[in-house]
């Protein structure tokens, strides 16, 4: 598997997980949206559109349309970041988060940091998918190595968040 293929798969798994968590914990997802101050119509639209768009991004990334899927992922992360900033302006530094199945409040900087990592991952997929995979070995290996490390950091962070969430539910 190429570096871009691995990063595409990682990004797809993150978006598939986010979608599945919202669908499985639908009432929690709806409660999180209420904390963003959307009017009823926008909240209802977001409740369906966000998981649907996350699913589409995951499918595109896994179905060989990595550039389109990564562009959609980048657009979603940008929209999510704007929503976080909007929620912060309404309720302060702690904003609702229901991204991966755990509905709670987090510091907005943590959410923006995670979104930045996801945007970097999506950007890396866009850049790497634009190049010729056959010439990849002749390029300096610094960028692919950094991207792999960034992906592993993101994966570690997601695993830590999940394990923390599961521990908290057990209490």
Explain this structure.
Helix content is 77%, strand content 5%. The protein has 171 residues and is mainly alpha-helical. It has a two-stranded antiparallel ribbon with strand order 1-2. Strand 1 (94-97) and strand 2 form a beta hairpin. The chain is globular.
Defining traits:
171 residues; mainly alpha; two-stranded antiparallel sheet; 6 helices
Topology:
Blueprint: H1 3-24, H2 26-34, H3 40-62, H4 66-91, E1 94-97, E2 104-107, H5 108-130, H6 142-170
Antiparallel strand pairs: 1-2
Helix pairs in contact: 1-3, 1-4, 1-5, 1-6, 2-3, 3-4, 4-5, 5-6
Quick synopsis:
The protein is mostly helical and 171 residues long. Helices cover 77% and strands 5% of the residues. A two-stranded antiparallel ribbon has the order 1-2.
**What structural class should be given to the helix and strand makeup?**
mainly alpha
For the secondary structure, the number of strands is 2
The share of residues in extended strands comes to under 5%
The general outline is globular
Give, in order, the helices and strands: HHHHEEHH
Task: Please describe the biggest sheet, giving its number of strands, its sense, and whether it closes into a barrel.
Answer: 2 strands, antiparallel
Helix amount: over 70%
* Rg calc: 17 Å
Describe the strand arrangement of the main beta sheet, using strand numbers.
1-2
| Average pLDDT reading | 80
Oligomeric state as shown: single chain
Individual helix count: 6
CA distance, first residue to last residue: 41 Å
Low-confidence segments, ≥5 residues, pLDDT <50? Answer: 132-138
